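Quick question about two entries, pasted in order.
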Amino acid sequence: FCLVVNAAGRVFAVTIDDSQLVSDLHDVIKERKMYQFPADDLQLFLAKRDDGKWLSLDEAAAVALDEEGRLQGFEPMNPGRWIKNPKHFGEDFQAKQEEVHVLVVLP
């Protein structure tokens, strides 16, 4: 699942093949949400806690931007890397209900 930060817990699902790039995920999210700005303007972050576990729906809904409109404490996803890159989801990723995997920050 993905969650738009500062959007009242708006969680949504997207489907993307693990052989695609993070930049492709930008495109899928833009299309799914019908945003009227370039997909490259989206900022995507891994929704992982410090212990490496994925955020729960409640934890993700509580995430907020700082005073300067930035997301602190989460790793940005590199648009040039594959989805299955170990720094992102890895080869053996299995999505589970009640988990958020990507935090989306709008321009």
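Here is the second entry:
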Amino acid sequence: MIVSRPRQVNGGPRGLGGEVGVEVSANWRIQTNFLCGGRTIISRKSITAGIAELPVENDVSKPSNTLRLVFPQWQGGGRPPYHFGAQLLEWLAPPASGPVEHVPVPKPADVAIEVENGIVARAQLLKQQDDAAKLIQKHSPDSIVVIGGDCLVDLAPFAYLSERYGDDFAILWVDAHPDIMTPKQWSYAHAMVLGNLMGFGDEDFSSRVKRPVKPSHVFYAGLEDPSEYEAGFLAEHDLKSASGAALADTSQPVLDWIKSIGVKHIAVHFDLDVLDLNTFKAQLFANPNVPEGTYDGIARGKMTLAQVTRLLKDVNHHADIVGLGFAEHLPWDAIGLKTMFEELPLIGEP
């Protein structure tokens, strides 16, 4: 997750003309074709091939008891586009091999948010976490894939996995930011989620974690430039991390950590802002609707999709990935086209 002021999205399509193919990795390709008035075509087949490289749902050698939880929560970060970002991620993902549940989240146009006792949309967020927990308990899965949504979507799923696997469980937090704030530093709960999972922070949220994860069982991959408060928290609790540069060509720092703690089960939180803006645009920092310099001073990710894919596959060879959460997808071009469609005659809403 990212700590900055939320912005309203009002943009339209950019860069019309011709056909462009973008190779993201060997198995990922986004093809754009602006024919017949302008259309962006995303090749489901090629993108699905890239997602299918990741663990948890794609091992056909064993029966699946993996729950796919679609959780378009946006109030935790105060950014309505997270709702649509989760919907698009659900479309991009390969078909689920196990049960699928959708956490009910009001559309941004249907609900207002305000600060409640230091946290924006406190009551809504707690209800959504409780709804997610009920859906998880309904299936009692061995593993969970979370399609989000802001970073808070992983609170209930990872809390369940921690309770299920106990001391044989750890969290790999693939994120440019540590997510250990409290209401004293920030009012958006997506910046607090990992602190809550370790038993720290606001009691309404941390109390929903029945078995907090030990700090020694947490590792940050891709962490960049923590703030003074964050750096102090990391040092106080001896939290381990590796920057994007340290993981550019090797997964060894993470593998060494897994060996040192001796756990078998790992949940992975994948915040898309851990990715380098130059290679991946569907994230906050590519927002075309804010003035230049809006996000100055905020840590930015430096990893690539290929590096994250390699890292997670390596981890899955040394332990069992039982949780995989995708968060903070902001597909600005698609959002712009969607907004344009809604305003046009014939195709738009009356």
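Reply: Residues 19-343 form a domain with the Arginase; Chain A fold (CATH 3.40.800.10). The first strand starts at residue 19 and ends at 25. Hope that helps.
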